[in-house]
Prior knowledge:
Blueprint: H1 2-20, E1 25-27, E2 30-31, H2 39-42, H3 56-72, H4 75-100, H5 114-132
Antiparallel strand pairs: 1-2
Amino acid sequence: MIRNIAGxxxxxxxxxxxxxxxxxxxxxxxxxxDYAIDELFTGxxxxxAEVLGSMLAPFLFAALLTLLGVLLRSRLLVALAGLVVxxxxxLWMVRVGQAEGSLTVGGDGAGxxxxxxxxxxxxxxxxxxxxxxxxxxxxxRRVDHGPRPTHPTLDGPPPVQHPDAQQQPHxxxxxxxxxxxxxPYAETQTYDVPAWDPDRNGEDPPPRN
Length: 209
């Protein structure tokens, strides 16, 4: 979180410096907004360019990338903005060096001005901001593996019930069990008991069923 804030501050300061640089002197007192973008590919001339078609246009694009990168916490967008600023500034320096023969730095307003320094410093701050930012944190995707098994108790692991089995109603252990009504007595059956004859050779009477 702190790294994102620090990197965002550096990126915003760098983007501000880059956008402000075309309004400063770039070479021999000539402002950066006076150089047309197409002159970077065809050659530097003394013609004055329009504002939207000058060196301000790529720096505005870099500032837009910076804002998106800060909002989305994207290090790639911020680094891309820094490369855009540095790339156009270096390309301008190459073209001016070819037109003038050489680049000079003078203290009386001749040669390279503070606008170029602002552009180079803004691009470097953008790259530093991208390095300092931690970016978006990757959220771990939770995988659902079903219900977690309950921890076994002292009585052993819980019984595994089949999903098709009917659930038995919960019975309070403090509640007295219901008494079952005994089945009705079976109907009395009659048996034929033979009569005992005492004169039958002294035999014991037959056992009763």
